[in-house]
Amino acid sequence: MKIGFVVNDITTEEPGFTTSRLATEAINRGHSAWVMGVGDLAYDPDEHVYARATSVPKSKYKDSASFLQDLHGKNAVKQRIVVDDLDVLMLRNVPSDDIIKRPWAATIAAEFGRVAMRHGVIVVNDPNGLAKAASKMYFQLFPEEVRPRTIITRDNSEIKAFAKAEGGNIVLKPLQGSGGASVFLVRPDDLPNLNQMIDAVSRDGYVIGQEYLPAAADGDMRLFVLNGRPLRVKGKYAAFRRVRGGGDMRSNIHAGGRLAEATVTDKDLRIAEIVRPKLVQDGMFLVGLDIVGDKLMEINVFSPGGLGSAQKFTKINFSRYVIDALERKVDYMSYYGRNFDNVDMCTL
Amino acid sequence: MKIAFIVNDVRTEQGKFTTSRLGQAAVNRGHQAWVIGVGDLAYDPDGQIRARATSVPRTKYSTSESYTADLHGKNAVKVRINVGDLDALMLRNVPSDDAIDRPWAATIAAEFGRVATRHGVVVVNDPNGLAKAASKMYFQLFPEEVRPRTIITRDREEIKAFARDEGTIVIKPLQGSGGASVFLVRERDLPNLNQMIDAVSRDGFVIAQEYLAAAEQGDMRLFVMNGRPLRVGKKYAAFRRVRSGGDMRSNVHAGGIKAAAEIDSTALQIAEIVRPRLVQDGMFLVGLDIVGDKLMEINVFSPGGLGSAQQFEKVNFSAHVIEAIERKVQYMQFYGRNFDNVDMCTL
């Protein structure tokens, strides 16, 4: 098959990235795999979407590091390709990484993806689903049962009342944007500073205040969900734990913390089961669930990362199974003459 | 019925805005009508959407100016309302007006609106439809026949090649709007093309379009409601914007005068061609900007100018828009406030 990966910027891709692993796997399975930055796309007067795309010269790579070295190297294959001729376009850029310097880049992959799918390209995750998930408000569309209690407002006094009702323990973050910036843990003795914390967050728009889950003190678990089901191979789940490091309340890896093996329990599977209908409805092919205790902290639908970490602890090359799932979609699409609803195809 | 209008900011609403006319029409028809700024919304811990909303003290207003004066006045009614209890929510904020100072505000009405649809509120235009229309790329999803030739890229060379092929082109930013950074590029402007492209591409992707010679005369705005041209008796909700001076932008705030429009079979054919997609995306009220036999733009976010259409056609179109929403609210009652919002938007 011919597959394209849309990333923020080719030059900043790293071997540890899940996208690099997926592309390496695609090449090793004999596919033609292209990588393109969000700024490399174009809509031409002939009504087709094109891209200045990059591929690699060899057909086998022993790891994603050597793949990426070739992708960045002088033997890289650079070509202006017709995106509409691809079988699959995988949107793997992280919008929040572009939010400050290139705000226009945040939504553009979905915009081009929406045009490409008219021509029978399978676009994952579904562009219209991604458009619905542009902010953390998306999370509120999932059943209450799996979410922490939440308030979203720009009114300081409403947040203060919420903090009091929660016993002084809440988490504050911006509704739009992400990546761990401006995330505050508010404890009872922080109440005198609450105004300043709210102001810091509300500079960027609406503030989301959430009940603090005591279980978060131990970190969280990332569980990958593929085609609406937990990604499981040979009895092992694509999952890992992020253990809090030091005093920083953000378990995101770039905010400090270490990774560990995860034990996926019935409680986790139940959460995945509860979110399944909505994920299927929105055409979410590959997502990352961040689980704390019996609640979800976040559903990452834009370029969820960490497949390599899951592989490290389980010794399963999950990337292969993700590509395998895409191959099946391409087969389906060929049976149906490249004419099948993209949302449905995303989780078939 | 209980209806609310979401605007950029209650304080900056003006009497002549289409939203003010709609608010006045709703009040005059005996409805409870609230106005809410994009920053006045909240999602509460009980899962409900609430808003600091403003309404007017009286039940009849002779003009939208007197209505707006009361909305801004000291007798205005200010209440924190439950948005989920409304019958209809009309998203009427203009995202591009907030693009610079409050970028977060551009998409927020649709975000809250999407949650409100869960509670059986009729939200127009459909929030998911609006999310698809976040940039001018949306336009490319309509049939080629009604669009000017177009290229969208960040590559200068591709735009230059396009300019050479077309002779005269218009370049503008793909995202954002309102007439800022819109350039007309003629053959004699080619030496400045690099600078023009740079000015536009600062904000992201550049959209370049074939220049339509008919645009010299300006364009026509035609309102489409429920997927059909808005027509009362034999009068269409439409008007013409005539170019003034040398400015190629026919947007009224870039200069230009308005005139009565004549709706011909070409304009109706264009409306017919765009209809399926507008219905599919739940676009209740949109403005088509027509030049010759092409569309220049489809305005799905808070299209304005109903007052201008009224001025030339002597029809109070605003009342007919409110009436169409009343019908939706009735449908919703028959169906126990449980009906797909996309479909309801154009019923």
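The CA atoms of residues 24 and 63 of chain B lie 7 Å apart.
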